[in-house]
Amino acid sequence: MPIGKSDIGKSMDRGPKEFKTHMVDKEGNVMLIAEKNVITTHPLNSIKNVARLMKEHDFRRIPVTDAGTNRLEGMAVAIDILDFLGGGEKYNIILEDYNGNFLSAINCPINKIMNPDHPFLDRRTSIDDVVDIMMEKRTSAIPIVEDPEVKEVIAIVTERDVLPLADEFGVSIRDAMRKKCITSSPGMMISDVSKIMVRNRLRRLPVILEDELKGIVTVFDVLKFLGYGEFKGINAEEVLSNTRVEEIMEKRVISVDPDQDLALIPKLVKETNIGGFPVVEDGKILGIITTSDVIRKVYKE
Fold this sequence. Notes:
Layout: H1 8-11, H2 47-57, E1 61-65, E2 72-77, H3 78-87, H4 91-97, H5 102-105, E3 121-122, H6 127-137, E4 141-145, E5 153-158, H7 159-162, H8 173-176, H9 190-200, E6 204-209, E7 212-218, H10 219-228, H11 236-241, H12 264-272, E8 276-281, E9 284-290, H13 291-300
Parallel strand pairs: 3-4
Antiparallel strand pairs: 1-2, 4-5, 6-7, 8-9
Helix pairs in contact: 2-10, 3-4, 3-9, 3-10
């Protein structure tokens, strides 16, 4: 039986018309939807191993906890690993601490680049607060702790946990998508794509050639290459500047029509385990629609 169904009409006053839904009650306890089997890593695990862990479990954020007490020490974030490996300011750590040696840098401990100030919540938090923080901090996952002082991690809540499901929202994908879509070309170097992703905090870029969608490249695609690739040198800049996007991108892309109902996106996310889709009309890309866009449109507008 759906949770909080009686509140749907009230909550939809701020957005789309009332709809038949399986959306969990936003005012409920966060533990109703949080994942209690939490994948964590310890502060001294290598950046390379953490990147592999992210790819293996399809996580962009992994809590870093003390191995003995499970106390939250920080958060390992995929975009920060990309930042470190050549996309942004954290790349200076490689230059200064490892003399530009890429192979040494990817084996350094994750606590070197983890975010020690990542938001966390306690088990009494409402789902409404979770959504607010996700939107405000632009984060896709928040650890849940038993006690804010002890900070022992007991669960984690992600965008997909709060993603609403419905037969229809009465809102088109066109009305929720991001129209200013930053893209890549097949011939662009990984170094350039990494910098674009880090600078704009983007998880994925559609790959376009002569206005035609050719593929999509994600943070995971870059991390997979960096974690498993056959490198042509040990210098970080050489590693990133010797491989083109077309060599690592996903060529089979699921795109959506702008006039389809927004309710299609949560269904596709559930079916494909993909968090974002290019929006295409008459063969041309108009924008991109992600889980964040759906949450923002349904809950907040």
